Amino acid sequence: MTLTIPFDNTYARLPGTLFTRQAPTPVPAPRLLAWNDALADQLGITGTPDAAVLAGNTISEGADPLAQAYAGHQFGGFSPSLGDGRAVLLGEVIDQTGQRRDIQLKGSGRTPWSRGGDGRAWMGPVLREYVVSEAMHAMGIPTTRALAATATGEDILRETPLPGAVLTRVAASHLRVGHFEYFAARGDTDSLQALFNYAVDRHDPGATDPLSFLKGVIARQARLVAQWMGVGFIHGVMNTDNTSISGETIDYGPCAFMDGYNPSTVFSSIDRNGRYAYDNQAKILPWNMAQLASALLALMPDPEAAIPPFTEAVHAMPDLIEAERLRTFAAKIGIASPRAGDTALIDDLLALMAAGRSDFTNTFRALPSNDAKDHVADRDAFLDWADRWHARLESEPDAAALMARTNPAVIPRNHRIEQMITAAVAGDMAPFQTLMTALATPYQYPVDQSLTRPPSQDEVVTATFCGT
Ligand code: AMP
Ligand code: MG
């Protein structure tokens, strides 16, 4: 039965300044690598997955492919024109819960925004994004989803020739902070207003003005970064073009989960100054929100007068993030109703973990069984901490259950992702399947217990690459 996607497109009806119509570029030999049946059901998609559709060779009925215009601050510097250089939005569907979702092909060929790039992606980052985004979803963290991964049958040139692939990505929308920056920088207030109306409609139907919209984005992003930190996730490229309006994690590039806890961990090979290091993520987001605030000012009848309230909204963000971080980490140690003093309890544990580079995931997971002392270098200091902690838990009757659903047993560890990619390139998708099965229920111990183990000395991955 042919694959039927019930498209219902709205972005394609916006002013032409917001996008360019762009068909995907056909590939020689599309072959399905992975298909997300459960997600397809949620989206109302029927029929058998068709590699020709998912690679962009065949345009489904109702699709209206386009590349979106956006700008972005990349590592602090402004690029006025980025846009979808290797992706096209096929269109939108209304899912089973009534929510509008984008369906995009990533790695689908050149667009007017490709600049020097080939518009392609290789299999490694496509499968990495597939696995990590689905794992994030299973952990309850807002994220874009992966519907399919399709091999193109064509090698693309990176440092060496590598097999190409296309990711079919699903998102609450692909709107980024950079969309707003694009029109603000051009002084195109009409397009900016159209974009704003559209974003409000899709993400903040209650927002009556740019300031309340800004506050909505800030609240979602504050919660998101706290959730990332709670699972030891490092996004790697938190540029404003990779910061979503919906509050979903977007654009998995050189992202990674920490094994040993070190708050200044950086994986991305392009992040030389640690701008997007683990513990800097909470500091950089308010900076990104300041860029959104400045772009939105152009919509105000009196921008000068709007500066103080907009600034105040951005300045409130560190406290919001701290409150979300407290909530997230309190739950990890079994505290459902955090109090001010709990911050010290959490930070003291984290300091003990940092001193011995304790495995982030396994140490938290071991807390209820009292095995955590074996993960921390200074055992005596840990036992002192545990006394304070146990005293605090006396007023938290559901601590064990809370910890069991807050501390994952299995995360997509970097060395397992690398092994999975190596196997997939050689034609073996079994490690991918094993990972996906375990990560679908991250709060249960996986059948393959080796997935919970930190890397051995020779398995440690120290850098991840943009892999575009
Ligand atoms: P990223 O850092 O992957 O989010 O990408 C930043 C910008 O570079 C976006 O505008 C992308 O569309 C563009 N880009 C990344 N990789 C490619 C590629 N292989 N070909 C064309 N454009 C690309
Ligand atoms: Mg991007």
Keywords:
468 residues, alpha+beta, 2 domains, six-stranded antiparallel sheet, two-stranded antiparallel ribbon, binds adenosine monophosphate, binds magnesium ion
In short:
With 468 residues, the chain is of the alpha+beta class. The protein has 2 domains: 11-171, no CATH class; 175-407, no CATH class. 39% of the residues lie in helices and 13% in strands.
Q: Can you give a write-up of this model?
A:
The protein has 468 residues and is an alpha+beta fold. It has 2 domains: 161 residues, no CATH class; 233 residues, no CATH class. Helix content is 39%, strand content 13%. The chain contains 15 helices and 12 strands. Strands 2, 6, 7, 8, 9 and 10 form a 6-stranded antiparallel sheet that branches. A two-stranded antiparallel ribbon has the order 1-3. Strands 4-5 form a two-stranded antiparallel ribbon. A hairpin with a 2-residue loop joins strand 4 and strand 5. Helix 3 runs parallel beside helix 15, helix 6 runs antiparallel to helix 7 and helix 6 runs parallel beside helix 8. 48% of the residues are buried. Bound molecules: adenosine monophosphate (AMP) and magnesium ion. Adenosine monophosphate binds next to loops.
Could you outline the blueprint of secondary structure elements for this entry?
Blueprint: E1 19-21, E2 31-35, H1 37-42, H2 51-54, E3 66-68, E4 72-74, E5 77-79, E6 87-94, E7 100-106, E8 121-122, H3 123-138, E9 145-157, E10 161-171, H4 177-186, H5 189-203, H6 210-230, E11 233-234, E12 256-257, H7 281-297, H8 303-315, H9 317-332, H10 342-355, H11 360-366, H12 379-393, H13 399-404, H14 414-425, H15 430-439
Antiparallel strand pairs: 1-3, 2-9, 4-5, 6-7, 7-10, 8-10, 9-10, 11-12
